[in-house]
């Protein structure tokens, strides 16, 4: 087992653990804590996969913005920040569905041969060249979607509706 | 960097998807629902990043080795947008219904 | 010039299209067009343009009468097969020939004048946009019927005018009598229509499966075309019984629409509709469609001798039968309605005796003077608000135009020269007389028609004297009458002109071209000839009519009211007539007993068999849906579970079922 694999293994265990904890803890604010760690952990995995730009992006967008946004959402919908949300019982069906999906995914993708090597031509410059040339339409579309989402979000939260 | 077997990564990604599905199906709090969705999204991004550097792809003429990462960038943007809209819905729901419990918000009408 | 007019033939479809557009516009926006009389002026305008086009087309036909322009679209085509050795095709299209252009003039001129009159007459009623929309639809259907180039299309428009008639009779649907009259008209004409359809089927069967060579009438889609000329030439001997039945079925259809005995009962009751509707639909155009059908059938298909006798019998009998009922009626509109039935009887008589064009000649003149009579009656009703003859009287001083118009219409109806009715009615009588040599069995019906001439003169002038003569109104509570607005007077004056001159038009050679048979053949009795016997017959006819008028004056003139002595044979005869020979009572009894028991049986089947099945199915589905609706909980998590379930199904298909199938196929 190589060092990379060892590191990946450790990070994967942390990811699964924090993901589960985020969903299972009773305190919503603790959830934010765990999901923050989860995002940082995934960022580390990206660095491991020789994708530092994405790693930084993950840190900035997810571990930074999204986490804060979620925390903010909890704060404005709660009278007291530390209040417990009654989690409903965990039924057999959801667990079964989750497990079966897991098995199928492993079965479908796990049979692929080989393993990844770092991209030889990798550089942030190459990525940005790609993004703003070949993939530019997608970027533009993303911009439009964001604009629409912005308008939609403002419409949803503006005062005096009804 | 040495190589990383496909099976390891697929195991992690599948596990995260399973957690995500589990969360979506069991959690009743809207914000937890959003978090569960984000976990699933991250699994997808992870897969994109990994398979971007997959050997078969590198040799194919039509496929740029960084395309997967480019898509991942777009997906991260989309996911962040989705969280913003989702939170806007949470706020609207909270103001109109006084709850963030999805089990109570069963009708689209006010 | 004639070339330019003839080029209009291809545009004949515009004539029905304009009222159709008016129908749509008025139907949709009529209520917002308050300043246009709720769309009334739109209807008038559309009818006016249609009329101009129709007149131009008729002028083209007069100039070059042989032109047939048929615009056809084949909507069903079947190749030859064992059942139909020549195959067949069904078409829809327009046929412009002299006859249809003649009918176009009748329909559009009367239609336009009646619509114009309506602007004044209907002004105070509610639901005007409905009225004008339905009247426009009627015009569309009637023009379409006239322009039909095949029997199926004809039937389609035939039913459409029937529906419009139903709507318009029931225009005052809040009134129970109007609603039931509409129903009555619809149901009774339906009896005729079903038989008519049966007749079409029989004709179709005979011609499509066993037509003589070169005569494949049905294979060319029931076309009204000269090449299909009658089987009476004799080559269809074996089919004669079948064709006789078909002809009788057509006769039944025509009798229903034209209110001939024994399907006559609906027309007097149809007077519940507005008077304008009576004038247009139940006097001038729609009821004449039955005669038109008979004429078309006799021209393009032919009737067997048995059929001809049946038609003569029904027509001849109806003339007298309806006239007797008109004699005693006290409702101004109903008297005119009975006279319509009687006059239609003359036309049927003529068509049956083999003089289709003579019948249509009478149709042409009758349309104008009968519309005139109805509109004049409408003017009276508009002025004093009652239809009871015995409440009227002395109106000629108040309603000068109306009185004169009614008198002109009455003289035309009574057959006094030179008014329009004289020429055509006289032509019918002398034509029928001319064939009594070879057909002595026509004699009784000719005599009935002659007797009806006397009664016609009597009853119509009884109405005139009761309404207009004398020095005072009998019912003092009625308001002081005054003439209607100009829109009501202009149609009266124009129609008066037609009632005077329409009969004489036939002596103009160009106009007589409109009565040419297909292929430019001159029709029997057109224009009328005047030999010694004809003149004697004319004198006899005018004498009878004049005698009728004289009798009316003796009994009712100058405000006199004639009363039959009580208890005599005459007063019991009168009772029979007032009760309309108990036909309505009998029909009601049959309806009540026979139909009701059938209806009860049907109701039983309906309730227990049909409804049982339907309810069973309904309960099955409602139970299923009761279960299914629980899926729609509205909880997001549940929906997410369904999505995941679908995802798993895709996995199963891709990973398990797919490879399995591939292996099976590949291995096999």
Account of the protein in words:
The complex is a heterotrimer of chains A (162), B (110) and C (668). With 162 residues, chain A is mostly helical. Chain A is built from 6 helices and 1 strand, in the order ααααβαα. The longest helix of chain A is centred in the middle third of the chain and has 26 residues, at 52-77. Chain B is mainly α and 110 residues long. Chain B has one domain (6-104): Helix Hairpins (Orthogonal Bundle), CATH 1.10.287.3510. Helices cover 73% and strands 2% of the residues of chain B. The longest helix of chain B has 31 residues, at 67-97. The N and C termini of chain B lie far apart (56 Å). The radius of gyration of chain C is 29 Å and the shape is globular. In chain C, α7 (176-210) packs antiparallel against α8 (240-257) and α11 (286-300) runs antiparallel to α14 (356-384). With 668 residues, chain C is mostly helical.
CATH topology call of chain B: Helix Hairpins
Helix/strand-derived category of chain C reads mainly alpha
Please outline the major beta sheet of chain B: none
**Biggest interface, which chains?**
A-B, 88 and 78 residues
Output the radius of gyration of chain B.
18 Å
**How large is the radius of gyration of chain C?**
29 Å
- Taking pLDDT < 50 over at least 5 consecutive residues as the criterion, the unreliable ranges of chain B are none
How far apart, in Å, are the first and last alpha carbons of chain B? 56 Å
Terminal CA distance of chain C reads: 82 Å
User: From N to C, what is the helix and strand string of chain C?
Assistant: HHHEEHHHHHHHHHHHHHHHHHHHH
Brief overview, please?
The complex is a heterotrimer of chains A (162), B (110) and C (668). Chain A is mainly alpha-helical and 162 residues long.
Topology of this structure?
The complex is a heterotrimer of chains A (162), B (110) and C (668).
Chain A: H1 3-24, H2 28-48, H3 52-77, H4 92-109, E1 115-116, H5 124-132, H6 136-157
Helix pairs in contact in A: 1-2, 2-3
Chain B: E1 4-5, H1 6-26, H2 30-52, H3 55-59, H4 67-97
Helix pairs in contact in B: 1-2, 2-4
Chain C: H1 2-6, H2 14-29, H3 40-63, E1 69-78, E2 88-96, H4 98-121, H5 128-147, H6 151-169, H7 176-210, H8 240-257, H9 266-269, H10 275-284, H11 286-300, H12 305-328, H13 332-352, H14 356-384, H15 400-414, H16 420-435, H17 443-468, H18 486-501, H19 509-512, H20 532-556, H21 569-578, H22 583-628, H23 636-667
Antiparallel strand pairs in C: 1-2
Helix pairs in contact in C: 2-3, 2-5, 3-4, 3-5, 4-5, 4-10, 4-14, 4-18, 5-6, 6-7, 7-8, 8-11, 8-12, 10-14, 11-13, 11-14, 12-13, 12-17, 13-14, 13-16, 13-17, 14-15, 14-16, 14-18, 15-17, 15-18, 16-20, 17-20
